[in-house]
Amino acid sequence: MSANPLAPAWLTLPTDANALAPGLWSMNSARTADGHVCIAGVDAVELAARFGTPVYVIDEADARARARGIHDAFSREFSRLGSHVHVYYAGKAFLSIDVARWMTSAGLNIDLSSGGELAVALAAGIDPARLGLHGNNKSLAEIDQAVQVGVGAIVIDSAQETERVADAAVRHGRVQVVRLRINSGVHASTHEYLATAREDQKFGITIADAPALVARIRGNPHLSFLGLHSHIGSQIFEPDGFAEAARRLLTLHAQLLADGPVPELNIGGGFGIAHTSADEPASIESIAAALAEVIGEECARLHIAVPDIAIEPGRSIIGPSTTTLYTVGTTKDVVVTLEGEPHGGVEPAALRRYVSVDGGMSDNIRPSLYRADYSVRIVNRSSDAAPVLVRLAGKHCESGDIVVHADYLPGDVAPGDIVGVPATGAYGWSMASNYNYLARPPVVAVRDGVARLLVRRETEADLLARDMGLHEPGETDTGAPE
Q: 456 partner at 20 to 30 Å CA-CA among 6, 20, 214, 359?
């Protein structure tokens, strides 16, 4: 059997369309003898029956292990340079009260981007000193709340924020520790929307403008300058971009040392993960080793001590730990005309099967927003049917509502099957919406054969609760008050 000509070049025809590709599924996922996929000892069929679909399923031990692994890898490499590493879990990837507690128990701090994320961390009982606050347009209320509760560090993203943070520190009688976000100009190899250090975009200030702003920060008695911050993008597979950003920031770091201490350098996050069998992201261990080598060499060249290092991984921790389960509703074969010369008066064509599920862009917008690729497998059974090229589609009123652009499934995939899409932990739930008035799915943690609800499913009552027409007198069809 040959590959479907509609398949992208990276997608190979599988010898077994039931196999769970290594590196895509959480470490405790496996297909059992009955053909069902189990995640951390819990049957996917049982999960779908108990919690409904769609449902995000987090392999808790996997997430905890990845957090510890990143912490240990970077600490090990930089301790050889006499440097201490601070690892911040990037809460924007996915944050709940339990996940916040998992991260801090693994030795990580937490990086936040809004007042809402701050509220979750505080509700989890996290020491505010272990929190950092980001954002290119923090509201006055968010800044005030962060300073009031004692957030460990606030990242200043613009000149205006310097005075806003200082004013809040005066009100609350504090000296607020701050970092300064720098737009390093490094062009990371990722989607345009995920690159956050290119010159023409909203984040940070330029290297040229930094010394004057640092002088303003140092000149304010209510601010304490911790160091520079950089984030070049997300879903980056190689360490080269991080290394180049570190070189540029260390040159500025050395310049700033002439007028005062610069205790730390924050090189951000964005470490990529595999979403398809073709993805080959660098390992965390190799990234840590490469960055330690570059930073050590650059500090020696500049004749400066290696500062403390901070990093902010999110996707690389929670992304691979999570699988989204869906139920198939319909299947539909579509004949697609191919480019090429007609043969015998007949246009060349190929078949693509659309498999529609009970979720879509409301629970994973990334394929529509970034054209991100994902993979899919049937999880309620195995099959000997020959593989067919499928496109996993959502149920929303958009032709771009795609969950998986291209993968192979057994040709007998049918309504009622349960399918799993792995590596959906990052930016699935956190970017979820109520488009078409769909309720957002629940989040379930599984560990050692036990499933536990972390975030319940929204209900239609939840959606209506904010519609004031339900609670206040409305108008009749004539427009006259009732």
A: 20
Q: What is the pLDDT of residue 203?
A: 80
Q: pTM here?
A: 0.92
Q: Cβ contacts of residue 15 below 8 Å, gap of 6+?
A: none
Determine which one of 1, 258, 346, 397 is catalytic. 397
Cα–chain-centroid distance for residue 167? 33
pLDDT of residue 403: 98
**CATH 3.20.20.10 boundaries in the chain:** 80-318
Between CA 119 and CA 214 the distance in angstroms is 29
What is the sign, positive or negative, of the torsion defined by CA atoms of 202, 204, 206, 209?
positive
Alpha helices in 365-457 (DSSP H): 366-370
- Calpha distance 356→121 (Å, rounded): 36
**What SS3 class is residue 189?**
coil
Q: Which of 55, 46, 5, 41 is nearest to 420 (CA)?
A: 55
d(CA 306, CA 394): 49
DSSP 15: S
Given a cut of 70, is residue 187 above it in pLDDT? Answer: no
* CA 84 centroid distance within chain: 25
* Per-residue b or e along 321-351, where b marks 16 or more CB atoms closer than 10 Å to that residue's CB: bbbbbbbbeebeeeeeeeeeeeeeeeeeeee
CA distance 188 to 152: 29
Packing angle, helices 97-105 and 115-123, rounded to 10: 70
Query: May I ask the CATH class of domain 80-318?
Result: alpha beta
- Quick one: fold of 29-59+321-463? Lyase, Ornithine Decarboxylase; Chain A, domain 1 (2.40.37)
Domain with CATH 2.40.37.10 in the chain: 29-59+321-463
Q: How far apart are CA 267 and CA 139, in angstroms?
A: 25
Closest among 368, 426, 370 to 392, alpha carbons compared: 368
> What is the SS3 assignment for 419?
strand
397: annotated active-site residue: yes
Pairing mode, strands 308-311 and 85-90: parallel
For residue 444, give the 3-state DSSP assignment: strand
Residue 472 has pLDDT above 50, yes or no: yes
Model confidence at 470, pLDDT cuts 50, 70, 90, reads confident
**For range 326-339, the mean pLDDT:** 94
Which distant-in-sequence residues (6+ apart) come within 8 Å of 301 by Cβ? none
Q: How many helices (H) and strands (E) does the chain have?
A: 12, 21
β pairing state of 322-337 and 55-59:
antiparallel
